[in-house]
Fold each of these.
Amino acid sequence: MENIALIESFSEFKDDKLIDRVTLMAILEDVFRNALKKKYGSDDNFDIIINPDKGDMEIWRNRVVVADGEVEDENSEISLSEAQKIEPDFEVGEEVSEEVKLIQLGRRAILALRQNLISKIHEHDNTNLYKQFKDLIGEIYSAEVHHVRPKAVILVDDEGNEMVMPKEKQIPSDFFRKGDTVRGIIENVELKGNKPQIIMSRTSEKFLEKLFEQEIPEVADGLITIKKVVRIPGEKAKVAVDSYDDRIDPVGACVGMKGSRIHGIVRELGNENIDVINYTNNIQLYITRSLSPAKINMIKVDEEAKKASVYLDVEEVSRAIGRGGQNIKLAGMLTGYELDVMRDVADLSVEDDVELKEFKDEIESWVIDEFAKIGLDTARSVLKQDVGDLVRRTDLEEETILDVMRILKEELED
């Protein structure tokens, strides 16, 4: 009865965990052999026969018959008189096979057997899960929101596997509810104790690259190559693309007519602004393209120091820098060069001008810094701007901007 009950419980594990027959038998035999070692000191002389499909199991102990009084190891030897109780014809030197019932191991040992089995099954599952998701690192994966926590979202896939998307791996505009289907990339699989923790990300550059592969057939087919992706998640991204086929316009193919192809990607990323540019080995041209939409007058490149000075007209400086410095930051990340934006020397000589820092006695330093963030560092560069536009592009109030403009005008008129 004990054998049948235990085997039935093994069958339940097989059905629940979808373990193949060979693996289950190997786990069961390992569990039983550990129990036999604890009970008898060794399992070398035991045969274990398991049929989990039929729910039966047999354990046989093999011992050599020795003369009475000469038994040295009770586990591997049996006295002649004891052997003849099993079968009268046994003689010294023969081998006796005797079935061991589970009940002989003791009820505590049987309970330990079941616990050991559960542990082995979980260990097997965790190992398989770890290997499965290790192979999926860098791939897009979909899962359902199971629980929303302050520092992470817990997701569950169709197989019931749990994964975690930490707050820093979420796009700032992401908002999830229980039951929502979420797409992200499997970024990492970490072992926490014996349990694998699957980390999903929506902020990874690889996620954007994989979205291009999914949405743009030429990328999936290898006709267009993605050379590099840089992102400020949820805000702005730049993607450098190239093609070995001169007949293909890689930028046009990726963007699509009126942005039709890239629109789905932008929407998936919370309306992240995506610039697609043609890759080139010409570093000056590459930097020029990376700073789009600004128009560049001249670039001085120091290849050894990986630095470049970019010269532009005053009105182009703010475009090159971008809101909050995003454009120039991403351009630097894309090209691998430290970029310094400079107002063109020719532009400086057009008319007398005064640097904003000269007004530090009348204008607070943090206000001057706000203008500098958007590339405005002289009096005339500020005065050329529209007040409403400056309110939108800086953290300054209209009253403050008007006051600054008044000070600057008075100085230039004098």
Amino acid sequence: MKVLIADDHWMIRSSLKHAIRTVNSALEPLEAGSFQEAFHLLGDNPDVELMLIDLMMPGLPEFEGLRSLRAKHPEVPVAIVSVHEDREHVVQAIAEGVIGYIPKSADGAEMLRALTLVLNGDVYFPRDILQGSTMRRQQSAALAARDMATPTLTSRESQVLELIAQARSNAEIAEKLGMSPNTVRVHVRNVGLKLNLKERSDLMAYGESYTNTRAAS
């Protein structure tokens, strides 16, 4: 499995390369120091299966660089490794379709846990950042108010939705509820279909409002 590591600091690239080889020694890391280099490597290596990228690199503004990579290579999952540790950056990255957001300040154990999840096709988002700061409620309120009638969720789907709202990965949800990751994926898909929500960021926002409504009733 080829993994593209894109960061303009060689020490970060070296650390990530060492970390992913700790997770799986068979992984083949490719290194880019800019968005332009990342585009070249992806063109020369169509079998890249994951991108680990910094938001801030030479060539393009942070989210524009991410959008350009996603637009040209939508089939390759992207995880962000960033110095930005505010909720706004994390939520925006989720809305752009990334499968992970890993703060550069994460300690060794947390970094390995995050990389293990994204390398295995799961998701990772820092719950402390998403839940620990003052949260904006506008998106949640808009999602909750879009229809007066809330689609009926099964008890299991409700549990899954509430855990998504806590930024839990599919693997963590599976462990928490005692089910397989495949079963969790089925529940996540069904919840998304019932609520007409395609992005995980929308499910997270709706789930927060949904949880608060259930707690108040």
Amino acid sequence: MMNFFIQGMGTPWQIPAHIVVLVGLGLLLGQQGFAAVRAGLLVFVLSVLIGLGLTRVPALTWDGSMVLLTLAGVTGILLALRLELPLWLGAVLTGVGGVLIGMGSAPLMIPGLNALKIYTELAGTAVSTSVTLLALALLASLLRTLLNGIVLRVLGSWVAASALMVLALLFVPH
């Protein structure tokens, strides 16, 4: 059973769009301060759980990579601009990101696979994404005053550039 949990923990690290969004959202929340981190993390955890629950509905499966990468680009630009955002906007961004990451983390459906193993894998994904977002947000909250915020602004530009590069790779013919 632990093997399925560990496999679920690795799921977000296998999809480039998930990585870029997690980095962008975590850094953006940390840049906004501890109130944004608390609210954003709560919304993110709930929305990831909703998204993971939606993976059990076969009619709702779709590849949200383009939307996730667009969201990452927006968070990168907001990071680079270093704007004071309203608390609700950070919550909306993390909520959308959480649902899409959850929906994009569906485990492989093998006939005869025990439902408990599927839910264990989904739990690993929820823990991994939430801990990653929290760690990045705490790191960013420590870096927000370093060199007058330049470090986070540069990282934000890298997030936006990374999102654009991965988005461009989606359009390359295979």
Amino acid sequence: MNKFHGTGVAIVTPFQADGQVDYEALGKLINYLIDGGLEYIVSLGTTGESATLSNDERKQVWEFTAKAVNGRINLVAGIGGNNTHEVVEQIKDFNIAGYDAILSASPHYNKPTQEGIYQHYKAIAEVAPLPIILYNVPSRTGSNISAETTVRLAHDFKNIIGIKEASGNFDQLNQIMRDKPESFLLISGDDPISLPMIALGGVGVISVVGNALPRQMSDMIRTCLTGDFKAAQKGHSQLIDFTRLMFVEGSPAGVKTALKHLGICGDTVRLPLVQVSSGTAEKIISQTNSITGK
């Protein structure tokens, strides 16, 4: 199986109560995820609150994560932004030791044209020392990578190997599947629609929910990939309410609440994010107990 088939998790960054990175908890979380049967981890995707970490902190988290993983699982670094030159320089400066690919979100806020998005990724592809996975998440970036642009990039750059697609637009997903190179990977970037995306031809998910429930998510995804969607439906349905709660007051505050309840790490987030309300926390804890049997 390709190293990016199956379940990847966009890992949270645990913080101490004073807001400093909690490396002890990060190591504990990494071991928890590996024991949960994932195929790969994404370090400092948007779920890792990368936008609120300094450059030095990002380098330290990437280095710590690579050492903690120690080759036991595939590893992806999240490197993106809305300043193309800055992203290119970050990638040039990135220590690739222990890493297998780079996940790069489409530029946020600027709202570039499709040609601008193409040129942004062209500049990245021309310097990247590792394969690139595009990340399309219009709800966060304010712009969409069209199917035509995705397919154009996939055909023009062999080191652009896939896309984490979180548009939720199945017409767009249909076009990508029809027109992409055979080896190009369509990866779900939205937990609730991973099952139907795999039915369409997707190869797995980069998950938020999997931070707290790695075994349940990875088992369900692997069952999907065997083509047994009837069997996978049970696991998919079990996760519906839990998944909704992960995002009702923002991510990763929801999943950090579940992780705190499970004893993996604290629920501190950095401003402008805040912890979930007590009412939502109670619902998350109840769902976590229901699914894990605790």
